[in-house]
Write a structure and sequence with these properties.
By secondary structure, the chain is α/β, with parallel strands linked by helices. Helix content is 49%, strand content 21%. It is built from six helices and five strands, in the order αβαβαβαβαβα.
Length: 140
Amino acid sequence: MATQDIAARPRILLTKSFIDSHDRAIATIALALRDAGMEVVLIDYEQPADVVAVALQEDVDVIGLSFMSGGQVETTQLVIGELERCDVADLPVVVGGIIRPFDIAALEAAGVKAIFRGGAPLADVVAKFGELAHNYRGQN
C-alpha cells in the first residue's frame, strides 16, 4: 500500500477503562473497522485525560469509548471536557457497550455523536465511524 493511501485512511481510537475486563466486543469492532480500511488504535486507559492525550498523539479522526461496568456519563463528560480544553472539541466521540436507556439523553447532551448499545448491527457501527471520520477530516 502506498504511503499516500495509508495517510488517507481514517484513524480511529478505541478505548476502554483498564478496570473493565471485557474485550470481546471492542476487539470485534476494531477488527470490523480495520477490515473496512480504517486504522485502529486500541488502548486501555486509567484516566479520561489519557484518552485525549493518545488521540492527539495518534492524530485520530474519531474516539470510541466502550463501557461494560458503568460510569459512562461521567467518564464521557470528562473526555469531552478534556477535548474542549485541548481545543479539539470537534473531534467526534462515539460511545458503546452496556449503555442504560436513561443515560442516552445525558450522553447526547454531552456531545456524543453516536451511541451503540449491545446488539447494534456491526455494519451500522462501521458506517457511522466512517461517516464521522470523513466529516471530521473534511473540516480539518
